[in-house]
Amino acid sequence: MKRLLLAIFVSSLFFAGCAAEKAQQASQVVKPEVKQYVVDQIKQGKEEGEIDKQFFVNEIQAKKPSNVQIIDVRTPFEFAAGHFEGAQHIYINDIYKEKGCESVLSRIPKDKFVVFVCATGARAGEMWSGLKEDCKADVSKMYYLNANVVYQGIGKAQVK
Question: Could you tell me if 101 and 135 are in contact, meaning their C-beta atoms sit under 8 angstroms apart?
Answer without folding.
Answer: yes
